[in-house]
Amino acid sequence: MKTTNKSIDKSICKTQDNPSAVYKKTNIVGWTREQMAQRVAQDIPNGAYVNLGIGLPENVARFVPEGREFIYHTENGLLGMGPTPNDDDICLDLINAGKKPVTALKGAAYFHHADSFAMIRGQHIDVCVLGAMQVSEKGDLANWSTGEKGAIPAVGGAMDLVAGVKTIFVMTQHTTKNEEAKLLKKCLYPLTGQQVVDRIYTNLCVIDITDKGFELIELAPNVTFAYVVARTDARLIDQRDKHIKRTISQSLTSFASIV
C-alpha cells in the first residue's frame, strides 16, 4: 500500500524520520488507539511485507507514512491487501483472516492457504503487528486464550506468525480494563510463543525487549516514567536518552550519505 497522505500527524512521535518533533499538548493521558497505530507505522521500513493481527493492529494500515509503501499479507491467501471498502463496494468473497471485508490493490496476488503459511514459515514476511493479553520481560507472548473453561480452544495462525516472521511488534493497551498489568515478569496465560516479541507499543509508551528485559525508549504525551513503572509488573529500564542519541546519530548518518 502506498500513500501520500499529508494528514499524518508527525508530531505524535520522535522517530528516525522526525527526531526533533515536539508533542502536541493534550488532556488525554497517553496515545489514542489511532495515535498508537500511527506510531507503529513510523517504525515499519519502506517496502516491508507486513501482516497485521486482528483488532488494534488493523488500524496500522490507515497510517502509512508519506513516501513509504507497505505490502500487506493476510493468512487466508492475499498479498497486496488494500483498505476496508465502502459499504457499497463490499465483496463478500474478499475478506481478511479476521473475516472482515478488504480490498485488493493493483498487482495483488491470490494463493492457497497452505502457500500463505509457507510464506510465513519460510520467513518471507518482514513485520507482524499483533495484539496481546500479556507479554513477559523475556519477550514471551500470550495473545489467544486466558486458559479458562470455554476459552478459545486453539492458538491458530498467531503461533506460525511469531515463529516465522522476522520482526514481531505488539500493540496493546498497557493495562486491562481493571487496571491489571499486561507487561509481566512471566506470562500467566497460555503462550503463543517464547521470546518472540521485539518491541511493544502501548497507549503509554514504546518498550524494547532486550537481554536486560523491558527497556523504555519513548513516553507518550503527558505520561511520566513513574506512571508507567506503577503499571508494569516487571523491572523497567529507562533508556530514553540513549535512544534519542542513537536516533539523532542515525539521522545524521543518513543525511551525510545523501550530501
Question: How would you describe this protein?
Answer:
This protein is an alpha/beta fold. About 20% of the residues lie in helices and about 20% in strands. The protein contains five helices and 13 strands. The chain has a ten-stranded mixed β-sheet, with helices on both faces. It has a three-stranded mixed β-sheet with strand order 7-6-9, with no helix packed on it. A hairpin with a 3-residue loop joins β10 and β11. It is globular and about 50 Å long. It starts with about 30 loop residues before the first helix and ends with a helix. The N terminus and C terminus are likely disordered.
Q: End-to-end span in angstroms? A: 29 Å
> Which blocks of ≥5 consecutive residues have pLDDT under 50?
2-8, 10-26, 251-259
Specify the structural class. alpha/beta
- Spatially, the strands of the biggest sheet line up as 4-3-2-1-5-8-10-11-12-13
Number of helices: 5
Order of helices and strands: HEEEEHEEEHEEEEEHEH
Mean of residue pLDDT values: 85
User: Strand-residue fraction?
Assistant: 15-25%
| Helix content estimate | 10-25%
Shape: globular
Radius of gyration: 18 Å
